Structures are given as C-alpha cells and as structure tokens.
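Exam prep: given the inputs below (a chain plus guanine), describe the expected output before reading on.
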Amino acid sequence: MKFEIKDRDAAGRICKLSTKHGTIITPTILPVINPNKMLITPKEMKNLFGTEIVITNSYIIFKDKKLKKIALAKGVHKLIEFNGSIMTDSGTFQSYVYGDIKIDPIEIVEFQRDIGSDIGTILDVFSTPDQKKTEVEKIVKETINRAKKSVKLKGDMALACTVQGSIYSDIRQKCAKQLSKIDSDFFPIGGVVPLMENQRYSDLVRCIIYSKKGLNPSKPVHLFGAGHPLIFPLAVALGCDFFDSSAYVKYANDERFLFPWGTEKLENLNELPCSCPICSKYSANELRKIDKKIKTIEIAKHNLYVTYLELKKIRNAIVNGNLWELVEKRANSNPYLLEALKELRKKENKKFLEQFEPTCKKKALFYTGINTIHRPDLFRIQQRLFTRYFEKYDTTIVFPEGKKPFSQFYSEKISRIFKRNCEINILIDSSLGPVPLELDEMYPFAQSIFPELIDLETEKYIIKIFDDFIKNKNTICWIGPETLKEFKSNKNDCIDFDILRVSSTADMQFGRGAGKSILNGNIRILKSKKTGKIRNIFCNEKHVLSMRAEDGMFTLKLDGAKLLHKSFKYPKLRVVVDDDAALFIKDGKSVFSKFVIECDPELRPFDECLIVDKNDELIAVGRCLLNRIEMLSFNYGMAVKTREASN
Ligand code: GUN
Ligand code: ZN
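Solution:
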C-alpha cells in the first residue's frame, strides 16, 4: 500500500493512498456499508459522490452463513458489488455495544484477508472514557499483543492496528508508539465514539494529539466512528486522514439532517437550508409527507452530499493554506468545539503542531476570534523573533500599530530617522505582537487581516509577548520629531533600509547570521518597477536571493545556498541524500523521501533547504515538502522539490 503527501496545511495533509483496488485522495470518508441492509449501494455512492473507498464489517459477514459463504467464494468486493477499495472492521465495536460476543482475534483477521479486504482491522479491545487507568493499561497490552500476532497473518492485505488508551494521554502515546514498531499499515484512533456522542471534544483533541505523537507519521490515520462533518476540519488539522460514517444512515433514520454546523430535525425545518439535489427536489413539507423508507434514503443522500462537500472544502482549505481559518469558523458555531480549541493554546500542543505547519502560505491570515492568535504559525513567528531576530542597535523606538505596510505608513517619520542616520531600531506594537519595521512585508506581518477592535484575551496575550520582547531593552516611544533630538547622527555609516530588510528577513527565515553570510560582499538590490518592492538580491553580481511578492520571504538561489552552506555548520538547513539519488538530483530531479538519510530537525514544510550528499557536498537547493521525522519515515513521495542543482 502506497501512501504519500501531496499537499498540506496545519498538521493536515492531502495524501494519495493506493490499494489493490485503486487510489484514494485523502482526507476522505469511508461510508459504512451494512451488507444486510444497503440503504444506498456502494455503486450508487460512487456515481453520486465519487466514493472511492467504503468500510464494511467483517464480523457481520462472518456470523451470517449466507454472506460468509459468498464472501469466501467470491470475495467481499463481489458481495457488496463494489470495485473500489474496501476496508473491513473486525467486530470490536459490536463487542463494545452488545457485550459478550465471541470473536476469535486471529480468525477474524484471517477471514478479512481471505475475503480479499484491501484494509483489514485487528480485533482491538475497546477502551471507554470511564475506565480506570489500570484497566486501560491491560486493554492496551492485549490490543498490542493481538496486533503483533495479526501482522504475521495479513498476507497482502493492509492491516489497520487501532490505537486505544481511553482518555489517558500517556497510554495513547505509548500504544501508538508500540503499534508503530510493528508492521502495521494504517492507524485508526479507536475508543472515541463515546467522546463524540457526548460532545467531549477537548478530550477528543487530546486523544488525537497524543496518538499522533506516538504514531509513525508516514501512515494513514483514521478517526474511528467519526461521521459528523462538524468535527472534520479540526480532526484533519490535527492530522487525521480518514473518517467513517454510519451517521448518514443513523441520523436519516431519525429524520435528522447533517450540516457542517450541526444537526437539524426535519420537523423543525421550515425550509431545507441546502442546495444538494435532494434539498432542491423537495420542499420541507413535501419531504415530510413522502413514504418513510424513501424519506430515509433521501435524507441519507443529503447527509452524504453534505459530508463530501465539507471534505471538498477542507481539501481546498489545505491547498489554499487556510485550514485553521475553517477550523475556527466551524468551532465558532459550536460551543463544545470552541472549548476544545483551548487545548491548542497549551504550549506543548503548539510545539507539537508547529513542526508540521508550513512556513509560507498562499493567502493572508484572517482573524476569526480569540483562537487565531494561538495558531502554530503565529507561535512560530513569535518564537523566531526571540531566537533568530536581533536588534542592530542599543535603542529601540516603538510606534503604535498604523496601517499596513507599516514602513509606508510611517515613511515620513522613518525618513527623518534615516536622514539623521540615528542608530535606532524601529518596532511596531501590532495586534500580532512586536514587528520590527524591516520585517513588515514578511508573512504573516503584512499578510494578516485583523479587525481594528480585537478581543480582550488576544490583546492581553499580545501585550505579554510585547513586554517579554522589549524586556531589558532600551525602548522609547515616538512622541514627535523631538524624540530624535537626543540621538547623535552618525555621519559615517549610512543606514540602508533595504539591506536591513534583506538581512533580518534572511535571519528569520534561515536562522540567525544568515543575513550576514549572504550579504558579505558588494550588494545590489533589484526592485519591482511596478510595486517598488524588493525582487532580486545580488552579492558580488551573483544572484543569491529572490523575494516573493506574495509572502515577502525568500526563494534561495544556488549561489545564496553556497554562502549559507559555507557559514552554517552541518546539519543546519541540510537534507542529506543517499549517493544513489545524488546523481539524479544533480540532474534536477526532486528528492524522494526514501533517499533521505538525515535532515536538519529545524526544517519545516515549505522551507528552503540545502540538499547535500553524505560528505556534506552541496548538490542542489530546493523546497521541503516534509519535516525531518516525515522525511525519515515516508517510503513514498517527494520530500524536497529541487529548484537548482549544482551541475
Ligand atoms: N468503530 C468505532 N470505534 C472503534 C474502535 O475503537 N475499534 C474498532 N475496531 N472499530 C471501531
Ligand atoms: Zn441537502
């Protein structure tokens, strides 16, 4: 089974999974098919919604003589008449719901293999939120034992090994880690249905994060039993690739409509607030009056339309780099979900999520409320200000937030400072926190839209960061031109704001000292005639950097890479590749994960990087698609897109 990342945002990803029966683009849903009662057949689903994968239950097939016979003779694909990919579950959930039912953990895995399931599931032991820790530890131990025995029997079926551990973060993480050590192909996060039924989304967030922390990042992750689209954006942003839904039928049976913002009962709908083919065909009144069975099917279809539509929106948000915005918008429509986002304000969770967060985005960052300021990319930029940026002078002058770009808004005042060559740093007290003036065009400082009045919590948080940033610094506030009087002008050393911008941006993007290394020579800066913005930077007439108009960050040129390679010690900024791959990369081919042997742990998705061989010879410059742990785990797909090779 091949699984590779194609695009990403937050800790979410768009991946391509290939099974024996085709390829699937994730994140997606596996509609639950009950082989005894197919309200909508898989074939019909494929036609209506483009369904590429479904899930059915091997235990239901196993215990029904007739179904078992057909499945063993003709295969599960024939049984449910679907030629796409089929995942099977094992009966764990039935054991949990109905109590004492007899299933042999070995027999059920062999059965799934024998009926030709593409992805089978071990008979994990369901852990519930109310169990004691010692009980959960036993359950997890048994689940891991079963997984170890099951992988030996899987044949050419991919095997899903479920992470259990109830609400105990440490047990979840340990279970995930243990399961990642054995030959499993797919990781459902199990035991979470009771949490979702009771809208315990904060607990759910912890379950996902701690499972993810222990899991091999190169394998698909499935949130078992999650079928309500309300939870999808958040779960995807935390790294879930698959969901499964019987919700579409269960809710339809009760005449309930799924929506991204929640659930509505038909009896409470005056009009159908949806434009899917079903809701376009009937008025609410007409639908109420039709035959019960047809009504259930029609509502189930609406439920699937809405579910697939939300997944399309999520995948679009990943491509556009605004998944957190979608997460926050959805959370703003449900108080339990909103509460759950508080989990993401914890520093340990921010640190974990930051590793997967792309460093540049196509779209501006939109404020949606109190959670925006806690996004991992804002956490990162604040951290980098503390660790990578450094002030050139002893004194800093602080301006209040004006209009963007700040350097234009304050151009008159700034020119006074520069005319006198005052040795002063200029800092903006912005709603994103401190912004050194020379970084005002860099993402997200320029590419963020905040309302004039922000909420008090954000304001308090920002004040704290600002105060920390100027602590022990000599700062003064601008009160008019007289502020500058006490500063002697420096006649010898002329301050060049463009060079300052290039230098500080390079430090923020590549690490402290990068600006100095790249700008060590005769510098020429080329600007756009149309916008006046910096475009290309030459050092001793060699093109070293290009500044991107969309995010004010650099594309690293090979000559710039050579300078960074010389001044930054191994492994900083490096992706180390196998000798076999080096030849191809020198030809301009991209770097595939399986050829990466080491990588700078500080590199993040979409960062510029130096591609080197085992002897640390620079062979190319490129853009990472993955972070270090991913590069070292994935066997398929691209790790770095090569831009310029040294040959
Ligand atoms: N379906 C819903 N939850 C679970 C679970 O925890 N394990 C399995 N195998 N199936 C499920
Ligand atoms: Zn509809």
